[in-house]
Amino acid sequence: MYGAGDVRVVDVPDPKIQLPTDALVRVLRACVCGSDLHPFRSLPATPEGTPMGHEFVGVVEEVGAEVSAVAPGDVVIAPFAWSDGSCPFCREGLQTSCLHGGFWAAGGIGGGQAEAVRVPFAEGTLVKAPVAEDSGLLPSLLTLSDVYGTGYHAAVKGGVAAGSTVTVIGDGAVGLLAVLASRQLGAERIVLMGRHKTRTDLGREFGATDVVAERGEEGIAAVRELTGGHGSPIVLEAVGHMPAYEQAFGVVRPGGVISRVGVPQYEEAPIGFGSLFRHNITLTGGPAPARAYIDTLMPAVLDGTADPGKVFDRTVSLEETPAGYRAMDERSALKVLIRP
Amino acid sequence: MYGAGDVRVVDVPDPKIQLPTDALVRVLRACVCGSDLHPFRSLPATPEGTPMGHEFVGVVEEVGAEVSAVAPGDVVIAPFAWSDGSCPFCREGLQTSCLHGGFWAAGGIGGGQAEAVRVPFAEGTLVKAPVAEDSGLLPSLLTLSDVYGTGYHAAVKGGVAAGSTVTVIGDGAVGLLAVLASRQLGAERIVLMGRHKTRTDLGREFGATDVVAERGEEGIAAVRELTGGHGSPIVLEAVGHMPAYEQAFGVVRPGGVISRVGVPQYEEAPIGFGSLFRHNITLTGGPAPARAYIDTLMPAVLDGTADPGKVFDRTVSLEETPAGYRAMDERSALKVLIRP
C-alpha cells in the first residue's frame, strides 16, 4: 500500500530464513481485514509503500535449526500477531503482548497478502492444522488468524456465558463472528446491531436472535426495549469508530460490560460520570490473542459444527487484491479471500 | 454551601416524615468527604445554597407507617446513596443504580452535615448497627457510609484476591481504605502511591507493603520496578483527577485492570490504542454500592479486627464544619469527623 486507496501488487525479494527460530511459509489463503480499510482510507502516501495483510494460512516450506514443532509440508495457521511462545504474557495466553513479538507487515517482517512470508518464532506463532493443502476448510481455518478469534475474544472478555444477554455492535466479519462465539458460549439472547441485510441474515444464521438496524437514539431505544428496558448486560463493540463506542455506552445496562475489539480510531473518548462511571460500566477488550484461541476453536471447524468461513463472500487472486480492497471499502463485499 | 469556599451553618426547617417509607434520623456523626472538596473548590455561588454531606450514622427518631426493619432508638448507618431495596439493581447489589433511589443533599432530600435527616426508603437504605449512641465504634461505623465501602468496591471490582499484587493511587481516606480492603481480600503485595508521610504511614499500618512517593514518569518507573518490571496487574484509582488516571494506565500491567472509585473530574480521557486498548487493559469501577457491603464489612469493625475509623484525624462540632472543609482543603486534616 503506497497511500490511501493505492494498493499495488509488486515483486519483492523472496523471504529467507534469517534466524534459527524462523519458518518460511508459502501462503495458501490470505484475506483483507476490516482494519486494513483504516489505512486504505487514510494512509499518507510514501514512495516505498508498506506490505499488507496479517491473516494467512499456508504450507511450511523450510524451518530454522531450532524449529521442530512444525515441519516442511505442514499446513499452518498464522495468528495476526507473532509471538515467542515463552515469555510471561505468552504463557498467560496474552500473546498480543508478547515481550519479543510483533505484528505482520512491520519492522522488516512481511505481510500475509503475499506469496510467502518469513515467520519469526515459528514454534510460538504457528499452529498446525491437520488438513491438506486443497482442503475445503481453508477459509474457515483462515478466520482463526484473526476475525473468529477476535469475535471470540470480545465474547470471552465480555463474560458471555450460558444464558447471557448480549448486544453486538457491527455487522462486519468480527461482529458476525462475535455473534457465533456468543452463541457457542451459551448466550440466550443476542441482539445484532447492523443495517446490511445480507450481513445481518448471516448474523441470524450464526445465532443472533434479534437485529436492530436503527442507529443513534433510535437504536438505543430499540435495544433497551429488547433487553428488558434497562439495557444490555454485555455489549460487544466490533467496529472501532466513535459512534459505535457511543452506541455501546448508550445500550449497556448499569453494572454491565462493554468489550471492544474494533481497533479504536480515537484516543480520547467519554469515560466520566456521564458515560461509564455513573453506573459502574466496565470497559474491556483489546487485540485478541488469536494464538491462544486456535486450539479451542479449531475442533468445531474441523468437524463442521462451526462454519465461520461463511464471512468470505468474494475470492480474488493475489493480482486482484486492489479490487478486493475496493469491494470491501464500497461494502459490496463483506470479506475478501485472497488465493495466491 | 453557597459557592466555592463558602460553607455556612444555618437554621433550616426540621425535616419531617413525608412518606410511609420514610424514617427520621438524628445525626450522631457525619463527616466531610474528599469528594465534597470538588464543589468546595468550584461550586458557582447561589443565594439559596445547597445542603451538604452524604455520610452519617444516627439514631432513628421516628418511622413512617410502612417501616418495620428499623425502629425508633436504633443506631443506623446511612450509605451515601439512598435506595428502595427492591428494584432489580438493589436486588443485584448495585444500589447506586436503584431505579427509585438517589443521593443525599439533592432533590429535596437533606444532607448528612446536619442535626437530622429525612431518610427515604428507610428499609432499603438504612442498616442497623448493634451499638449504643455513645459507642466508641461510631467513627469506624461511619466509614461504612462511604469511604470504607468505596475502598472495598475498588478492590472487589479490581478482582483483588489471595496473592494479588495491587497498586493503590491516592493516599486520601478512600485510597487508604482500598489498601485495608485489599489486605482483607488477601493481597500479598500492596504498593501505595502517595506523598504525605502521615497518611502513607497509616497506609502501611493498613497493609501497604511499599510506598511510592514519586509521581509521573518517575512514579511509574518505581512501581514497575516493584512489580516485576511489567507493571501492576491491579490498579485502584482513588483520586478522580486526570493525572491519577494517567498514572493508572502508566503503571498497569498488560492484561491488567484499572478500578476507579475517585469521582472523575473529567469526562473525556485516553482509552484508545495508546492507553488501554493495545494491551487489553480493563477499566472498571464507579460509585460504590456501599449499602451492599455494610453487612460484609461490619463484623470486623464490631469485633475490632478492622479499625477504618483511623482515617479521622480531626473532630469538629457542626458549627465548626466550615473550618473542617478548610482543613481538608489545605490537607492539614486527612478526614474530618463532625459531631453535631
TrEMBL record, chains A, B:
InterPro entries: ADH-like_C, ADH-like_N, ADH_Zn_CS, GroES-like_sf, NAD(P)-bd_dom_sf. Its cofactor is Zn(2+). Residues 173-286 form the Alcohol dehydrogenase-like C-terminal domain. Residues 20-129 form the Alcohol dehydrogenase-like N-terminal domain. GO terms for molecular function: oxidoreductase activity; zinc ion binding. Pfam families: ADH_N, ADH_zinc_N. Keywords: Metal-binding, Oxidoreductase, Zinc. Belongs to the zinc-containing alcohol dehydrogenase family. This is Threonine dehydrogenase-like Zn-dependent dehydrogenase. The lineage of its organism: Bacteria, Bacillati, Actinomycetota, Actinomycetes, Streptosporangiales.
